[in-house]
Design goal:
By secondary structure, the protein is mainly α. Helices cover about 55% and strands about 5% of the residues. It has helices at about 25-35, 45-70, 75-85, 100-110, 125-150, 150-160, 165-170; strands at about 15-20, 20-25. It has a two-stranded antiparallel sheet. Strand 1 and strand 2 (about 20-25) form a beta hairpin. Helix 5 crosses helix 6 (about 150-160).
Length: about 180
């Protein structure tokens, strides 16, 4: 993968192929899927909110990747305190803007009566991104995450019940370990 820059132009996964579309970069893939399946923004204001939430998820993903590939989970307790523990979200601890409580607060503030992040009817790509980042953290922190961010974990469970998602999660295509080094 890292050596085949024709297939992986940024030398990393994920890679997505759909007909004539062959692309990398997770947020670009999400936006493509959102546009194709009408899971994108409805208007400029919702698009701005969607981009903000996706960037918040990406901030958490960067911290997660450092925990998995650089720290090899050795800094797990410090990571939890900095990026998950509810008491550290607003006490001045430097977290680089990456904290699950920030995502949970945005979700609850924008969550419609249907329980989706932006839409009153259908899930959006923000819901998929929130599911993914929550899923990654549940693999490591489990009940600790559920106690610290119950709204995100409830949202994760709701998205897991979407028909196509539920089918995928029950299939052999669902990887038991999602990181190349077996952690997480």
């Amino acid at each position: 993968m890292k050596t085949n820059l024709d297939l992986y132009p940024f030398a990393q996964a994920p890679r997505f192929v759909d007909g004539e579309v062959d692309m990398c970069q997770s947020n670009a893939i999400l936006r493509f899927i959102g546009n194709k399946y009408n899971m994108g923004a409805n208007g400029l204001a919702e698009g701005a909110l969607m981009d903000m939430m996706l960037d918040g998820v990406e901030g958490m993903r960067g911290k997660y990747i450092a925990l998995i590939y650089q720290d090899k989970l050795e800094g797990k307790d410090a990571y939890f305190q900095t990026h998950i523990c509810s008491t550290t979200a607003t006490n001045g601890l430097k977290n680089g803007g990456a904290h699950v409580i920030y995502l949970e607060k945005l979700l609850s503030r924008n969550e419609s009566t249907s329980g989706w992040a932006l839409s009153a009817v259908d899930p959006s790509i923000v819901d998929a991104a929130l599911f993914d980042i929550t899923d990654l953290h549940l693999r490591i922190f489990g009940e600790q995450l559920a106690a610290a961010a119950p709204g995100l974990v409830a949202h994760h469970a709701k998205f897991a019940e979407v028909a196509g998602v539920k089918k995928y999660l029950a299939s052999s295509r669902r990887l038991p370990a999602v990181n190349n080094n077996g952690l997480g």
